[in-house]
């Protein structure tokens, strides 16, 4: 499996899953654009990858802003001359009980997680069609697209929307040779689980997995590398559950505990 010379954008590239993926992609020969709001972490990662003789460039982006996403696509093609993979991965979580969910929080989550993914799919696909590139667009959904937990209404709605975006966009983009796929991670050891650490409930997140441990971001990156490679050419319009069995076999959260 190799990503040699593929040009890949990774949104949320400075975060846990994104940075592990950027690192792996670069080590497999891809030219990586680390796209994130977090300039400091993004530039640090760029330096780290370059030190290992990988190719990476940071580009500041706010995925909830259509023009910012469009600029990211243009920047990438200007810099590296192509676009083979978009990993639409930036996301946020705001936890509030449904009856206390204010409009600001609701819109914030939907704008980043849901609208941001649409902006990415559409702008990348337009560019791939223009360049006649048979690229792949990989999107980060979640096990929360399949099961509901307390206090995550907006997050779950957004991740569920991504599920249908994948199928719907894949259907229309297939004639252009563009694949649209996704991943649904279980509990991954990144900053997004900070609330569990603060509240001392990390054990609950661990217990959601078959092996009673958090999934490491590097394990997710391996799947994203496969999906971005030509070896996964027969996977299209679907979501790979990267959840260590959380959904299918041993989903042990309950409403009260999952808070
Ligand atoms: P993280 O918090 O480490 O990374 C998220 C990254 O997205 C951060 O670097 C952040 O700066 C960036 N970001 C946030 N808003 C942005 C915006 N408007 N524009 C551009 N970048 C923005 O968390 P993690 O876990 O790496 O999250 C990556 C994706 O994985 C998210 O979509 C998340 O919902 C999803 N996910 C994570 C799970 C977990 O347990 N860690 C489980 C299931 C899904």
Automatic annotation (TrEMBL):
Keyword Secreted: no
Keyword Cytoplasm: no
Keywords of this entry: Oxidoreductase
Entry's Gene Ontology BP terms: bile acid metabolic process
Entry-linked InterPro entries: NAD(P)-bd_dom_sf, SDR_fam
Record-level Gene Ontology MF annotations: oxidoreductase activity
PANTHER family, alphabetized: SHORT-CHAIN DEHYDROGENASE REDUCTASE (PTHR42820), SHORT-CHAIN DEHYDROGENASE_REDUCTASE FAMILY PROTEIN (PTHR42820:SF1)
Identification of the protein by name: Short-chain dehydrogenase
